[in-house]
Design goal:
The structure is a homodimer. The first copy, chain A, is α+β, with helices and mostly antiparallel strands. The first copy, chain A, has a domain at 188-345: Phosphoribosyl-aminoimidazole Synthetase, Chain A, domain 2 (Alpha-Beta Complex). Chain A contains ten helices and 14 strands. Chain A starts with a helix and ends in a 13-residue tail after the last strand. In chain A, 60% of the residues are buried. Chains A, B: InterPro entries: HypE, PurM-like_C_dom, PurM-like_C_sf, PurM-like_N, PurM-like_N_sf.
């Protein structure tokens, strides 16, 4: 997931009077700065954008348009997941899927990937081989070549085993112009599959919680789902994959950027029983847990049924469902209609408790 | 510097019978695997290329052609330099220059950069601000926008402060088609500036050697030098910036890929006195020390003088010199005519002793 998911949060940024940390701690990088929630947005707004912005190309995005080539988009992601392998995937496949999916959420099919390796001295070569082979396999399965790379080695203790970066260039499907600011009142909100699998799979493996037998990461490429939506072109208003910060963050970003209210039906959101159990144990809301294999589509009501059928026609969309709709204001609000009929506001997490899940 | 400088080494790869390490150590990542010399080539050939290659686009390159867009090239680099700041630059400016230069060595002007951050928990935000501002400034000075980014945070001890990745997309100047395989017998070998500054500046700062007052990194963008060579188009046969592995590695790569012999005149290679002194102290050959602000151009003899004038017309090429020429075989050999008139063969370092200089 890249920075733009955070630039899109609708939260007041700095100074953060609510921050419970003492001042000198606020002046250091915190784990929550990388979690995709409000702290990430703060870091972006107060540190990163002022430093590297101002080049005349507007805000950072999941996948940015390439200057002079309007049909091309580019996206970058670094991967620091721990452990390197987990049920359903590893850092190699995750790195490929993550970048392919960021391109896809701009309506683009992947043209080329780059792969950069930072390895810690002492990492077994067999392990490096395994995850890179997994990256290669994921790229071939997604139909995208790895065209160039880079390898750096740091001394023991200077990195935790292995970090990868993938950057991708994609070409937009001409009929699709999705944007986080493109949703309109009355849109159907579609979700392509169950939530919470990736974050709980990684966490359970790392912490030895015992859910590993029942939960596997959903990491997979989503560009074919996006291509399946191409026939509904201008009716596909917004697309996003709810990675860091989970479904809650994604819905808030789109509600904010599109200046509308999103209403979600809790009963319609598919949460696998093992994910629900793991979240119960950990005190986590499945809505804020990262996913790596589903997407949210905001589609005009008239095309929603057909779009759902198109998603379900692919294996990765077989469990696609409609989870809610959009409505006129209050702009930026996400409401959940709970199982007992109450409504609660779904917020962006400040800095959730799942470090290094991607 | 990216992987291709290593794929181009003309050395027998695995198994490496000369390797002094016991077998079980050879099966782990070593610092030398990241040094740009023979060990890097081994890692690429035995681990990385078999894993991610086979996508039908040929060998990894410093900057690869983008499929379907022959005029566009893409290049990626991760930066792990320690310390983060050094005389003449910091990890931010280095990350921008490194990728701009990799694009330039394929004859391309930069169109867009991505910037990905991996930060260690506890890094002072002021320090992050400083190096990112430096990256932003370097990008503006190079005339290239940073169009997208990514931010990850890892816990204390899981990374050494800060790593950056930059990936760039560039557009080739139509008249230039340089290639490491493009040099021809009789070419002049031009060098745009003195060698050894970057590696010795970083090393001296890190180790407190006391040369910091006299040596500053040469980190700078080189694309304008390349543009200055455009009028000599087809006569500009090969371009490369001698980063990791230094001038020795670069010359060996081109000699190997172009199947010819390179003859260098030691007296003509500019080594600043402070660099020579630092190398003496450290027992290093300046020819293997990394540079970040000079390039080597292999130019047809008939255009060599004019190309040298064009390089010297820019501040970053003011000290450009002709350091030698190419000749028919033995293919892949680099010979140095020493100050006393002897000849010695210049080899690719196995895994040089300058970790984390970029």
């Amino acid at each position: 997931m890249s920075t733009s998911t955070s630039t899109n949060t609708g939260t007041a940024l700095t100074p953060n009077a609510d921050c419970p940390l003492p001042h000198h701690e606020r002046e250091r990088v915190q784990l929550g700065h990388g979690a995709g929630g409000r702290l990430t947005a703060e870091l972006l707004e107060s540190v990163i954008l002022p430093a590297v912005g101002g080049c005349g190309t507007g805000p950072l995005e999941d996948a940015a348009l390439l200057p002079s080539y309007g049909e091309l988009v580019v996206s970058t992601d670094s991967f620091v997941v721990s452990p390197l392998s987990f049920p359903g995937g590893d850092i190699g496949s995750l790195a490929v899927h993550g970048t392919v999916n960021d391109l896809a959420m701009r309506g683009a099919m992947p043209l080329a990937l780059t792969l950069s390796v930072i390895a810690e001295e002492g990492l077994p070569l067999d392990e490096l081989r395994t995850v890179l082979a997994s990256a290669g396999k994921a790229a071939r399965e997604a139909g995208v070549p790895v065209v160039t790379g880079d390898t750096k080695v740091v001394g023991r203790g200077a990195a935790d085993r292995l970090f990868l970066n993938t950057t991708g260039v994609g070409r937009r499907l001409p009929s699709l112009l999705p944007s986080a600011a493109g949703a309109r009142p009355g849109d159907a909100v579609l979700l392509s599959g169950p939530i919470g699998l990736h974050g709980t799979a990684v966490l359970s493996t790392r912490e030895g919680l015992g859910f590993e037998a029942d939960i596997a990461s959903d990491t997979r490429p989503l560009h074919r789902l996006v291509r399946a939506l191409a026939p509904y072109g201008p009716d596909v208003h917004a697309l996003r994959d709810p990675t860091r910060g989970g479904l809650a963050t994604t819905l808030n970003e789109i509600a904010h950027d599109s200046c509308l209210r999103v209403e979600i039906d809790e009963a319609a959101v598919p949460v696998p029983p093992a994910v629900a159990a793991a979240c119960d144990l950990l005190g986590l809301d499945p809505l804020i847990v990262a996913n790596e294999g589903c997407l949210v589509a905001f589609v005009a009501a008239r095309s929603a049924d057909a779009a759902l059928v198109a998603l379900r026609a692919l294996p990765e969309g077989a469990q696609a469902v409609r989870i809610g709709h959009t409505a006129e204001g209050p702009a930026g609000r996400v409401e959940l209609r709970t199982l007992v009929g109450a409504r609660r506001v779904v917020d962006v997490p400040v800095g959730e408790q799942l470090p290094r899940i991607c």
